[in-house]
Amino acid sequence: MNDRSLNISPMISVSGQSKPTIRISEALRPFSDAAAWDRLLGRINPLWTVRGVRARVVDRIEESADTISLWLKPNRHWQEHQAGQHVLLGVEIEGVRRRRVFSISSAPRRDGLLRITLQRQRPGGVTEWLHTRARKGLIVGLEPAGGAFVLPDSVPARLLMIAGGTGITPLMAMLQQLAEDACTADIVLFQLYRRPDQRLFAGELAELARRLPGLRIHTRCSAEHGRLSPPDLVSRVPEFARQHTLLCGPEPLMADFSAAWTRLGLHTKLQTERFGAPRPVAGNRAESRIHAIESEQVFTQASDLSLLESAEAAGLQPKFGCRAGLCRTCLCRKQSGHVRNLLTGLVSSQPDEWVQLCVSVAESDLELSL
């Protein structure tokens, strides 16, 4: 029986008028409102929801002076992730729901726990708030894990991993998964960090090296030895061209190695995960006039800023999660104008197209639904 069309027929007429027809779907609306049930259940137990994923912080680890790890215990709605994927985490800050993408730094576990590792960022953001406020018992919201930065279905016999800073986090999950699977592949890991006190997971990596007989770990501190360049790596790993490469880290590192692998014709062997969008090149474009229709505000996009950064500089507060083009939280409808995607180089020139503010720049004056 289809309750969308089921009516309760009038049973009594008074002065020739029937009682109003009542739709069961309307009568039961309070009982079918998932959000209302979530609010009610949350008062009993913060982890209880009808369909949403929530998680409790069960441990906090101080990894370094500016980096912490949070161990989370999700509720029953969590679906297992793949090693290397990220998760969109939400918290309420001053009455506003804020979300941010974090790589999961642990492989799937039998106890259901998962770990995120976060470096302190600019004030006012989710990362800074978690550094200040996150303690055991804190309840956070989670979206299903996502991302294609995962191990190939058939693990190659040779793997090269390059991790800059917190770019080690998804690679840690992969290494844990490889150890769990008793992988015998030849694995070379380059772990890069700015200062000696910023190296993450030194103890865990030493343990993984004992469990993975093919794992070789190279470390480099840029404050002491300078940044690792592609020629530096090639000199230390002559067989690099035969290895499937996994690269994750800050944008300058990503740009250097992506360009080198492309020049060498090895781009099909390179798998990447970005924590930030490529930077617009200052001076390459004229400033564009942006009309934010919903807020009735006009602002200018400077040539060296993304649309998201320009909107924020103008005092607007667009939604965002990753600032790297991963989570699509900042999707915005472009009513008119030309927009270029910094990741793909593609230009959106048709009206009424969706664009990602964090990885887009204006190529003309624009009208945005902001």
Q: Could you characterize the architecture of this molecule?
A:
This protein has helices at 24-27, 29-32, 34-44, 126-133, 168-180, 202-211, 222-225, 230-236, 251-263, 307-313, and strands at 7-8, 13-14, 17-18, 22-23, 53-64, 67-74, 86-93, 96-103, 114-119, 139-142, 158-164, 186-193, 215-221, 244-249, 270-274, 288-292, 297-301, 331-336, 339-341, 347-348, 353-356, 360-362, 366-368. The chain is of the alpha+beta class. Residues 1-18 have low confidence and may be disordered. It is 22% helix and 32% strand. The chain is built from 10 helices and 23 strands. The chain is globular and about 60 Å long. The chain has a 6-stranded antiparallel β-sheet, covered by helices on one side. Strands 13-12-11-14-15 form a 5-stranded parallel β-sheet, with helices on both faces. It has 3 domains: 53-142, Beta Barrel (Elongation Factor Tu (Ef-tu), domain 3), CATH 2.40.30.10; 158-274, Nucleotide-binding domain of ferredoxin-NADP reductase (FNR) module (Rossmann fold, 3-Layer(aba) Sandwich); 288-368, Ubiquitin-like (UB roll), CATH 3.10.20.30. The longest helix is centred in the middle third of the chain and has 13 residues, at 168-180.
Distance between the termini: 43 Å
CATH class of the largest domain, please? Alpha Beta
Tally of domains: 3
> How is the largest sheet built, in terms of strand order?
8-7-10-5-6-9
Task: Output the radius of gyration.
Answer: 25 Å
* CATH topology title of the largest domain: Rossmann fold
Main beta-sheet strand count, sense and barrel state: 6 strands, antiparallel
Tell me, rounded to a whole number, the average pLDDT: 86
Query: Structural class of the secondary structure composition?
Result: alpha+beta
